[in-house]
Amino acid sequence: MGQAALADFSRFGKSFQEGLTQLILQDRPFADQICEVLDISYFELKYLQVFVEKIIKYKDKYNVHPSLKTMTTILRTELEDYNEATQKQVRDYFARIYTEEKTDGAEYIKATALDFCRKQNLKGAMIKCVPLLEEASFDEIATIINHSLNLGIDNDFGHDYLADFEVRFQIKTRNAVATGWDEIDNLIKGGLGRGELGVVIAPTGAGKSMALTHLGAHAVFMGKTVVHYTLELAEESIGHRYDSCLTGTPLGNLVSFKEMIYEKVQDVKGKLIIKEYATKSASVKTLQNHLQKLSQRDIKADMIIVDYGDLLRPVQSHKERRHDLQSIYEDLRAMAQENKCPVWTASQTNRSGLNAEVITMEAISEAFSKCFVADFVFSLSRTIEDKNNNTGRVFVAKNRFGPDGIVYPIYMDASRVKIKVLPSTGETPAEIAVNTAKEQAELLKEKYKQFRMEQKG
Asked: How far apart are CA 222 and CA 442, in angstroms?
């Protein structure tokens, strides 16, 4: 505990103080840090003082941070010394935050509160040192000031196996955003979660942007806020693809059905922001700055789409292109973690992927290592025959959440931005390649036979 309060948190407002109290309960390392310099009288609201006091007393007595279950018991049995109004306020507050994630603006609240508390603690230490100046007790002055400066600094040494026992058993949700493809969602436990990076691999013209649009459209349809960055196509072109995907209207008929499309998209629950940057003009830092501006307008992304990662500029240039790409994808995953939402992007294959029946990891162009940081990677392959028949294949190349190496046939109508992932047939990429080669050989034999018959006729 710090010195007697010289000020309080009143200037920061009620929501700040409630958010700080919530963080003290839910974030054990932060609680350890701020409690070294915190005086509960800094809180202007009595029920928050009582709440934090109960946490601190429990930590001091048992040398462990209270769990939610423990706090429930404490607040049920240890509030009899306070009037009924305070008891009700404390319990009502706990009920509000019981099932919530960490409060919005957590990093700001933590930094601001720590700065305030440390300054107040240092002021108290300096006042204590004034009489020591007259006695020339310089060593004692140095000890007091140094001790004050060392309080409240970052003391998170990681996960303490014993002290953080309860933390390991708290239910944590990934807040996964579904892809809209049942086969894939089942494979990755409901979709891509917060802080996770998904990558679509495909050659030119196979449908990378279409797949990313499908992912974004499904999220918007489900009521999520999607921020879609395009580095290749115009904002309007991407917007038209969403029009087609969300309404089922062919891309070629959008203008003719403008009024109908307008009526349909009014029912869309989510929010979509499409932002265009010229190829190689933007870095991940550029995207982060844009996201911060959106947050100032109370727009927080539930999913971020980058179409596509290979067209970003690295924050720091390297001598080799593959190192640039690797750093870009590392920054994309860091962006997902910082914004606590999934990030989807795409990667171009090398020439070997152009006519491949199934695109495996070997076909990733330039930097194989750029997908090391990804949590989920799938390829999209479509031969000329597939494009004519609206078919293709998805190959799950990497999956942190379960099995990979699985091939799924797909139905893809590019004219309507419509993609369906069908149940797997169980064939491996090698088997598909062999079977396709046999089918092509049979087709050639049949055509040659027909040609010979026509010649004889």
From this structure: 46
